[in-house]
Amino acid sequence: MVICTHINKDNVHNHIILNSVSFIDGYKYHDSKAQIAFLKETSDRLCLNYGLSIIDTPKANKHRRKNNMIFEELNFLARHSFNSVFDVTKYKENLSNKLPELKGKRELLWKKHKSADTNKKTEILKDINALTEEIDIIQAQKNACN
């Protein structure tokens, strides 16, 4: 796989190039939209790690959010080792207990957002996004416990 970055134009961007035929078994690589989104997410993470900007569109954000959940599930599984099914069940139950409170806080912020002035809306939206990310992480960890 090769990732090439074009910096000779106003729009700095990457091209991801890979050999679609395996040199090991000769099978052709077939990808899905999810796999392409995963590659883009990996590229975005590399860019952010090195202080580069990434494309920020609603569609890109939707894919990024979904892929963040996948990364969180994998990271969660790598960080935790449970001794029994009971431990997993208990952990999942604790996660489930956190969700209603977080979702309630987010709902209150949305109500506040509707009536706030323009300056306050930006602050409130940041808080909503932070809560949404926290909720997503808990959901991803719950999924990993299944």
Unreliable parts: none
Please give the order of strands in the largest beta sheet. 1-2
Distance between the termini: 33 Å
The 3D shape can be described as flat
Strand-residue proportion: 5-15%
Question: Which structural category do the helix and sheet elements fall into?
Answer: mainly alpha
How would you state the average pLDDT, rounded? 79
Number of domains: 1
Strand segment tally: 2
The ordered string of helix (H) and strand (E) elements is: EEHHHH
Oligomeric status of the shown chains?
A: single chain
Main beta-sheet strand count, sense and barrel state: 2 strands, antiparallel
Q: What proportion of the residues is helical, as a percent range?
A: 55-70%
Radius of gyration: 20 Å
Q: Count of DSSP helices?
A: 4
Core attributes:
146 residues, mainly alpha, two-stranded antiparallel sheet, 4 helices, flat
